[in-house]
Write the structure tokens for this entry.
Amino acid sequence: MYVAVKGGEKAISNAHSLFAAKRRGNTDVPGLTIEQIVNQLSFAVDRVMGEGSLYDRELAAIAIRQAQGDLIEAIFLIRAYRTTLPRFGYSAPIETGEMRIDRRISATFKDLPGGQLLGPTFDYSHRLIDFALDADAEVPAPEQAETDPLASVPRVTDLLGADGMIEPDPAEESEIGDLTREPLEFPAGRDLRLQNLARGDEGFLLALGYSTQRGYARSHPFVGEIRMGAVEVSLFAEELGFEVPLGRVTVTECQMINQFKGSMKAPPQFTRGYGLVFGHSERKSMSMALVDRALRWKELGEEQTAAAQDEEFVLSHSDNIQASGFVEHLKLPHYVDFQAELDLIRTMHREHAERLNATEDDTETPREAAE
């Protein structure tokens, strides 16, 4: 239990004022604008949108500024705001095959239909600090890509599927669950697992994904394809009888291909891991795909040997809002709890000392006792 700290209102109010002053910093320096954060800290904005499960760049930028760059705190703010919004319905499934592609790469095929499009990335740059970098410097315009970004581009997994070299796409659930409306229960279907992973903490999923590569799930993955771009979101309007387009959102999709030696029910073939997240978030989508594949061990008839395959462990600890809340609550007053523990330890300490003294008395010889 917690103890209310009497007379602390003034201290708490002053702490808020101190934090506001710290957040603003030197008032001689112009403050960050929302437009600057949206345009120049886009990866941070994308992460906050994804793990906050709310696609709104300006709101994410406001949360980042309010949280002074603490992304988990910003995600918390977005999650809290999201709970206040009305829900009008569920959008139709997006079609990533019709994505307006900004970036598309494959680590499995060099030449593939639709071509590879490097797009915006620092994958091929030297990791060196550019001390001459100036945010106001003129940026050279990139050359236009030869690939038509509006063309329908087949997925690499579809090409493998046509030859029977990869498992069929796992069947969709008859009714898709909603993790934001119902508490997670175990065992969880793949639909709920993917929802959980999509808004899970990137660092946690990255560590789990890395563990599968190091042998803690017997996984040998290949990046079949990563594509990033804008997809159209539609809502089925019952009064009209057809889908109405609402706009476009940017997403990153990863199709991971994994080796599979086969089982009594399935022949040797490649299997799938899938990741889909808001914005330009390749590291997160790859980690998600690796963990998704690890969690499918049971349906593929494999042996569970690693933490990344433990559904309860992964899904219960991947949410950074729950995790940070449970860890950071330790900062709150626990005075009664601690005093109770302290009294218990003192009593046990005293009883332990008494037992030692009694044991020493019992081991004395008659002569020592007489003396």
